[in-house]
Write a structure and sequence with these properties.
342 residues; alpha/beta; two-stranded parallel ribbon; globular; disordered C terminus; binds nicotinamide-adenine-dinucleotide; binds uridine-5'-diphosphate
Length: 342
């Protein structure tokens, strides 16, 4: 499945087969693999580009033989010379554990990766989507967070490589829009979870579910009173597609997430109950600059796109726990996205 062809070869071959030509960077990751499946299901040609730092070809197994799908191992800090009608720029590690393990690479992926994809979009007159993040709000002083809030980010802490990298990527997107008229769509994604997260991803939902299923201690960082708002992956992909299909000129930034806010401690309790686990809670130090509260105001997405999430937390957690249970039992990836591609 992994190709070695040149940029132009790949996109030219896809163009010959017809369909809307799309590039998904970070296509082998958690969100990217779900998005690629949905784009194929709606008839698009999909070229997934990924350097596999946190993504996995196993995520793409159900798509591998699809005639309109192609995967190429490629690092977005290197320009891609092909063309596309739509570009979805998702390449960037999203888990604090991973993006902090090589901060310089995180900054370069956000900035050089965005710039390379913006140049491609400008050159080929493509519409381009940017996966921005709630982290642009940093440690927010207002709740819930609206798009007009400019955030409170530490530029020197361990999260800065990601937070400032994503803020700079937003700046690049809006400069390309102002200077070149590039057709941009920017979403600020809030915590999203679901099948296809890596077992060792380090984010809270996958950590807690895997720990609960193994009856291992559940690691609460700090006292667990910090809050997040968790969106099920299918809802998020609906939101991304609604934004990208919206009329030219609707640029965002637009919050996409589930506005139901809960504490980390509450999340742990629900996962223990849901899985019938014998796990106990253990305290671990709170990471530096861990945001205290986070909750999206999704009024803009509701009003502009008619979008809001539909999957309640209990249901999303149940589906995710079932997927992880199968994965742990079978000892291999069990991709969830097969049905979407049929
Ligand atoms: P993920 O780590 O599963 O996926 C990221 C993908 O990008 C991986 O497949 C990784 O291998 C790839 N990648 C990283 N650096 C790259 C590079 N230099 N070149 C090519 N590929 C590279 O994370 P995810 O949750 O799927 O996140 C996808 C995007 O959405 C990211 O940009 C992230 O910042 C954004 N986002 C996600 C969430 C969330 O809760 N899942 C929240 C906010 C923003
Ligand atoms: N967290 C936790 N235990 C874990 C993993 C995370 O208590 O095993 C907490 C973390 O400190 C943060 C929240 O869960 O307050 C969400 O963390 P995650 O890494 O998923 O994403 P973030 O929103 O911080 O980027």
């Amino acid at each position: 499945m992994a190709g070695t062809s040149s940029s132009t070869d790949v996109t030219d071959k896809q163009a010959a087969r017809g369909g809307r030509r799309t590039i998904v960077t970070g296509g082998a990751g958690f969100l990217g693999s779900h998005l690629a499946a949905r784009l194929l299901a709606q008839g698009d040609e999909v070229l997934a580009l990924d350097n596999l730092v946190t993504g996995s070809e196993a995520n793409l197994e159900p798509l591998r033989d699809h005639p309109r799908f192609r995967f190429v191992r490629h690092d977005v800090t290197v320009p891609w010379k092909g063309s596309a009608e739509r570009v979805f720029n998702l390449a960037c590690c999203a888990s604090p554990k991973h993006y902090q393990s090589d901060p310089e690479k995180t900054v370069r992926t956000c900035m050089e990766g965005s710039l390379n994809m913006l140049r491609l979009a400008h050159r080929t007159d493509a519409r381009i989507f940017q996966a921005s993040t709630s982290e642009v709000y940093g440690e927010p002083e207002v709740h819930p967070q609206k798009e007009s809030y400019r955030g409170s980010v530490s530029p020197i802490g361990p999260r800065a490589c990601y937070d400032e990298g994503k803020r700079c990527a937003e700046a690049l997107f809006f400069d390309y829009h102002r200077v070149h008229g590039t057709d941009i769509k920017v979403a600020r994604i809030f915590n999203t979870y679901g099948p296809q997260m890596q077992l060792d991803d380090g984010r809270v939902v996958s950590n807690f579910i895997v720990q609960a299923l193994r009856n291992e201690p559940i690691t609460i960082y700090g006292d667990g009173s910090q809050t997040r708002s968790f969106c099920y992956v299918d809802d998020l992909i609906d939101g991304i597609l609604a934004l990208v299909d919206s009329p030219r000129g609707i640029t965002g930034p637009m919050n996409l997430g589930n506005p139901v806010e809960i504490t980390v401690l509450d999340l742990a309790t629900r996962i223990i109950a849901l899985t019938g686990s014998r796990s106990r809670l253990v305290r671990r130090p709170i990471p530096v600059d861990d945001p205290t509260r986070r909750c999206p105001d999704i009024g803009l997405a509701k009003e502009t796109l008619g979008w809001s999430p539909r999957v309640p937390l209990e249901e999303g957690l149940r589906r995710t726990a079932e997927w992880f249970e199968r994965k742990l039992r079978d000892g291999r990836q069990v991709p969830e996205i097969t049905s979407a591609v049929a």
